[in-house]
Amino acid sequence: MRVTVYSTLLVVLTGMAAPVRLRAESSDARETFRSSIEATARSFASGQSATDAASRADWNRLARLVEAARIVIRTRDGQAVHAVFVAVDDVSLTAVAGTLRRSFARAEIAEVTNDPKGSTAGAYIGTFIGISVGAGLGANLALRCAPHCGSGDSAAAALAFIGTTVGLGFAGYYGLRAAPELIYHAP
Questions:
Q1: Residue 53 CB: number of other CB atoms within 10 A?
Q2: Mean pLDDT, each 10-residue run in order, the chain (187 residues)
Q3: What's the domain range around 53?
Q4: Would strands 80-88 and 182-185 be described as parallel, antiparallel, or unpaired?
Q5: What does the pLDDT read at residue 101?
Q6: Distance CA 87, CA 96 (A)
Q7: CATH number for the domain including 93?
Q8: 76: closest CA among 52, 97, 114, 107?
Q9: Measured between alpha carbons, how far is residue 32 from residues 10, 24, 41, 120, 170 in Å?
Q10: Is residue 50 part of a domain?
Q11: What is the count of structural domains for the chain?
Q12: Rounded to whole angstroms, how far apart are CA atoms 73 and 70?
């Protein structure tokens, strides 16, 4: 697309600049100047087509996503949208964010990454460590007040056990998840 726009612009500007003549000492210099301009234009156009090809390759990676894949869309204004992939075409990406179906223009998107799940193995490990540490904390609190324990002390011992178990389980689930993979990055 960019190559077409730039090529058209080059043709229009060249056509408008036809009345302007540069004087050359000889016909060889005139040919050298003309071939120099043409070589520069070709170089510029091929550089743009390489950029466009790279951009299209990244955008085509979105087309290979499975429907209902969890993604994170970062817009150019800095907003991060956690969504579920629905469809993609040449100019937009459609996703479901929460309960709303949204369409994002390609020009509006800065990058798209996958939204990795948490680690279930990390959750099990964290929960096991939490049970061990929580049991030790709960037992320590219960033994400290052994002769004159009240209901508040028993509740504190139970909360130490449960809170540590749940907290370390969540820490393992979210702390050991895989890093997000970059799917698309705008040029």
A1: 11
A2: 55 53 53 57 52 64 84 91 90 90 90 84 88 84 72 76 87 83 84
A3: 2-61
A4: unpaired
A5: 92
A6: 10
A7: 2.30.30.100
A8: 107
A9: 19, 10, 14, 68, 71
A10: yes
A11: 3
A12: 10
